[in-house]
Amino acid sequence: MRKILKIIFIVLLLVTCGKKGDIKDASEAIKRGRYLEAIKSLKTALMNDSLNPEIHYNLSLAYIYLDSCLRAYEHFLKLVELNSPLKDSEDLKYPIIKSLKIEPFASSPIPMGKMNQFKGCFGPDNEILAVAAAKKDIADIYLIKLDGTVIKKITNRGMNTDPAFSPKGDKIAYVSNIDGDEEIYIYDIKNDSTIKLTNNDYTDFSPSFSPDGKEIVYVTNRDGGWEIYKINLIQKQAFRLTKNKFWDGFPSYTPDGKFIVFSSKRNGSEDIYIMKPNGSDERLLYYSKFDETDPHLAGNNLYFRSNMDGEFEIYSFNIKTKELTRLTYNDVPDWNPRVSSDGKRIVFSRKVKNLWQLYFINLENPVPAEVIAQRIKDVMGIVAPSSPEQRE
């Protein structure tokens, strides 16, 4: 009897090890792009173990890479049904989300009534925002909470836009045309006072503080074309960083202060470049035949807006892994993305029914697998079974 049990145990062990080996081989085949080979092996394994989540995960992954979306959806639904942790794997969730055209992270509106909210940026605490908003056409700068509650209105005349918080949160840079042309102003929150930083007959806009708070980088046409300058807040001395005949714009410092990212049209389309704070060592960071602009680099993640899929949408690009992620999906333009200092939130403007509305994306709140599963069921026309009470 013991010999029989031992033989059965060995057979079961060999079968189990064989299944694990098959799944591992299929996983390696997927990594090498041999999807059909992986599917053939996994379908055989599935016949012997239909409730194995690893098999369903790898089948869903292989099918989605082959654009066999419905088959990929079926196996993803099985992962959710089995409540396997694999349902939350980013390697599978994102291609599924992309095929369904839903946003990978939760986004929420920042209500301010029927005001046009053109631009916004987070303060250092990531709870207070500086916003350029208008009841009609003339915008002012407001300090607001995430729920849209107005804390303070800091401008009262002229067209005001492009708000930017200082690293300590004690100052706000913004652009105003109260003297006839667009200049950069600095508002001191504690002292409730404003100084004029730039003073010329040209257009200065798109200010962004250095991480030490001592300088501001901005765009100006003082030399004929649109170039990037930086200016010291104490001496008010401006220094030119870019020198070419093409558009250079939307500069922002990296959080460590070692680089400045910006967009440029020097290659025809608008692409994203990076340079040192003194303007040296310019190099291309992201290129496509479409327009990419409003760049912000946080760690390895480059955030920007692009029209590569039609309307302008918000994207992230991992400069290390080269993975591109579309963050917003809709039929209206999304503009002016600004990333919080901790890299966990993005605020942007979305045009809805001819009104610009601020939204923020919580990058720590990915869309749940259950929400994805419900969207799949809607797409596939799967109706949830009715309860006994509903059937009566």
Automatic annotation (TrEMBL):
<dbReference type="Pfam" id="PF07676">
    <property type="entry name" value="PD40"/>
</dbReference>
<dbReference type="InterPro" id="IPR032485">
    <property type="entry name" value="LRP1-like_beta_prop"/>
</dbReference>
<comment type="similarity">
    <text>Belongs to the TolB family.</text>
</comment>
<dbReference type="Pfam" id="PF16472">
    <property type="entry name" value="DUF5050"/>
</dbReference>
<dbReference type="InterPro" id="IPR011990">
    <property type="entry name" value="TPR-like_helical_dom_sf"/>
</dbReference>
<feature type="domain" description="Prolow-density lipoprotein receptor-related protein 1-like beta-propeller">
    <location>
        <begin position="135"/>
        <end position="307"/>
    </location>
</feature>
<protein>
    <submittedName>
        <fullName>DUF5050 domain-containing protein</fullName>
    </submittedName>
</protein>
<dbReference type="InterPro" id="IPR011659">
    <property type="entry name" value="WD40"/>
</dbReference>
<dbReference type="InterPro" id="IPR011042">
    <property type="entry name" value="6-blade_b-propeller_TolB-like"/>
</dbReference>
